[in-house]
Specification:
This protein has about 475 residues and is of the alpha/beta class. The chain folds into two domains: about 180 residues, Enolase-like, N-terminal domain (Enolase-like, domain 1, 2-Layer Sandwich); about 260 residues, Alpha-Beta Barrel (TIM Barrel), CATH 3.20.20. It contains 16 helices and twelve strands. The strands form two sheets. Strands 4, 5, 6, 7, 8, 9, 10, 11 and 12 form a nine-stranded mixed beta sheet that branches.
C-alpha cells in the first residue's frame, strides 16, 4: 500500500519543482540571447513519402503490423553569415505505436499523421528567426502540438492525436534542421551542442539544477567505433523450423538460429504479450533453448536479452511473478537479461508512486512510450523507473535533452528502434554511438523491411551488413547526422 503522507510529499515536491522550472524558464526566455553568426534560418522545407510492405508480420502491443510509411524531409537553411546548406531527415510514421486507437483504423490514424505533417511543414517553413536547431525545435514545439489538435478536429477524429504521435511526425523535420546545421559548419551535429554554438544551456530547457551545463557535456563528440546490434524476436516470429508455417523464400533467414548464424548475433530483444504469464515465461525459455544451441555451434558462451512488454503487463505483481518463474524455469535465460522495457501503462498518471521500484531493484526497468518530455521523465522516476529509452523518432532535440537529464540522474540508458530503415537507422545508430552510456543499437528493418535498406547498403556497409553481431559506427562522425 502506498503511504499517503509520502504521496502528498511527492505531489507537493513535484508541484514546487514545476513552479520553479516555469518561473526560471519564463525569466530566461525573457532575457535577450545574443545572436550568433552560426545561427541558421530556415529557407525552405519539403517532404515526400515512401511506402513498404513488411517481408514478415511484426506483432507488438497486441497488434500485427505489415506495412510502413516513411516520411522524408529536406530542409534548406542559411547561417547569419551567409553559408547555405540542405539537411535530410527520415522516419517511419509508426502510427500503430504512437497512435494506438480502438476508435480509428490504421488508415485513419495514418491519414491524420500525414495531415499533421503538412501543418508541421508550414510551421517550420514559416520560422524565419535564426537560431540553433535545439532552440528552433524548442520554440516551435507548442505550435506543432496545437497543429495536432487542429488536425484531429479537422479530420473529425473522436480521439486526440497523442503528443507521442506529434513528436514522431515532427522528428524528421527536426532531424533535417540538425543535419543542415552541421553541414553548414562542416561538423558532425554532436560537435555543435557546446557554448560556441549555443547561447542557452541545459538550465534553459530543463530547469535550475542544470544551470551552467552545456548540452554537449552529455554527448560524445566522437562516435563509438563498434556497438552490438539488438535483433528483434517478435511475438509471431518463428523460433525454430517447426514454427515456420509458410516459408518466405527470399533468401533471408526465417528462424532464430538462422538469424544468429547469419548476423553473428549476441543481443536479442524479445517481445512479450503481458497478458498471459505462461506464454511469456515459455517464450523466453524457448528463445533461450534455441539461442543456446545456435551459440554453442558458433562457440559463443555469452549473449544478452532485453524484454519488451509494450505496456501490456497489468501491474508490477505480474512482472515480479514473471521474474520469479523465469528464474526457476530458465535461470540462464534470466541471467542474460540486460533490461525490461515499458512493462505497464504508458499513462503514468495511473501508476502509483514507487510502483515499479520492486522490479527495478532486480533489473533496469526502462520507460519508453511514457517519455514525451522532461516532466514525464521526472514522473517515470517517481513511479520507480530507473531507466529511459531514447528514440530518434521522438526528435533529435528531444533525445539529446533527455539523454542529459537521464545521465545526470544516473539512469540506465538505451536507444530503441521504430523499425527504422535507411537514413532513419543511420540517425538512430548515430544517437546510440554518441551517448556515452548507451551500450547497443536496435536495428529491425533488416528483418522486416530489407527493401528499404538496399540503396543504403553500399554507402554504409558497416551499418547495413552485419556479420559479427556488431555495427561499425566509426563512419557516423560525418557532417550533420552523417546522412550523406
Amino acid at each position: 500500500m502506498t503511504n499517503p503522507t509520502r504521496r502528498a510529499f511527492l505531489g507537493a515536491a513535484s508541484a514546487a519543482t514545476a513552479t520553479a522550472m516555469t518561473t526560471s524558464l519564463a525569466s530566461r526566455a525573457a532575457a535577450a540571447f545574443s545572436p550568433r553568426p552560426t545561427d541558421v534560418a530556415v529557407e525552405d522545407v519539403s517532404f515526400e513519402y515512401e511506402d513498404y510492405r513488411y517481408r514478415a508480420p511484426l506483432k507488438f502491443g497486441g497488434i500485427v503490423v505489415e506495412r510502413a510509411t516513411i516520411l522524408n524531409v529536406t530542409c534548406a537553411v542559411r547561417t547569419r553569415d551567409g553559408r547555405a546548406a540542405k539537411g535530410f531527415g527520415s522516419m517511419p510514421l509508426g502510427n500503430v505505436w504512437s497512435f494506438p486507437s480502438r476508435a480509428h483504423s490504421y488508415d485513419e490514424t495514418l491519414a491524420a499523421m500525414k495531415a499533421l505533417a503538412g501543418k508541421i511543414r508550414d510551421i517550420t517553413a514559416g520560422r524565419r528567426e535564426p537560431g540553433h536547431p535545439i532552440d528552433i525545435n524548442h520554440d516551435l514545439e507548442p505550435d506543432y502540438l496545437k497543429a495536432a489538435v487542429d488536425a484531429a478536429r479537422e479530420r473529425g477524429l473522436s480521439e486526440p492525436i497523442p503528443k507521442l504521435c506529434a513528436l514522431v511526425v515532427a522528428s524528421p523535420f527536426d532531424a533535417a534542421i540538425h543535419d543542415a546545421f552541421g553541414k553548414a559548419h562542416g561538423l558532425n551535429c554532436y560537435r555543435t551542442y557546446g557554448p560556441e554554438f549555443m547561447d542557452r544551456d541545459l538550465g534553459d530547457y530543463l530547469g535550475p539544477e542544470f544551470r551552467g551545463e552545456p548540452v554537449g557535456r552529455y554527448v560524445s563528440p566522437k562516435a563509438k567505433g563498434r556497438m552490438p546490434m539488438y535483433h528483434l524476436v517478435g511475438a509471431v516470429d518463428p523460433i525454430t523450423a517447426e514454427d515456420v508455417e509458410k516459408p518466405i523464400g527470399d533468401g533471408l533467414p526465417e528462424t532464430l538460429p538462422d538469424w544468429i548464424a547469419y548476423n553473428g548475433l549476441t543481443h536479442l530483444k524479445i517481445k512479450l504479450n503481458g497478458e498471459d504469464l505462461d506464454w511469456d515465461v515459455a517464450r523466453v525459455a524457448k528463445v533461450e533453448r534455441a539461442a543456446a544451441a545456435a551459440q554453442a555451434r558458433r562457440g559463443v558462451s555469452e549473449w544478452a536479452y532485453s524484454l519488451d512488454f509494450n505496456e501490456r503487463a497489468p501491474d508490477v505483481a505480474y512482472l515480479l511473478e514473471f521474474i520469479d518463474r523465469l528464474k526457476a524455469e530458465a535461470p540462464d535465460g534470466f541471467r542474460r537479461i540486460q533490461y525490461i522495457e515499458q512493462p505497464t501503462a504508458r499513462d503514468l498518471s495511473v501508476v502509483q508512486p514507487g510502483e515499479l521500484a520492486p522490479a527495478a531493484r532486480v533489473l533496469p526497468v526502462v520507460a519508453d512510450e511514457s517519455l514525451t518530455d522532461y516532466e514525464t521523465l521526472l514522473m517515470a522516476r517517481d513511479r520507480g523507473y530507473n531507466g529511459a529509452a531514447l528514440k530518434a523518432c521522438k526528435g533529435q532535440s528531444h533525445a539529446v535533452l533527455l539523454a542529459a537529464a537521464a545521465q545526470k540522474f544516473n539512469m540506465f540508458l538505451c536507444v530503441q528502434d521504430l523499425t527504422c530503415p535507411g537514413a532513419s537507422l543511420i540517425h538512430s545508430a548515430g544517437l546510440s554511438a554518441h551517448i556515452p552510456s548507451v551500450r547497443a543499437i536496435e536495428a529491425n528493418a533488416r528483418q522486416y523491411m530489407p527493401d528499404a535498406n538496399r540503396a543504403w547498403e553500399p554507402r554504409f556497409p558497416g551499418i547495413f551488413r552485419v556479420t559479427d553481431g556488431t555495427m561499425d559506427t566509426s563512419a557516423l562522425d560525418g557532417p550533420g547526422l552523417s546522412v550523406v
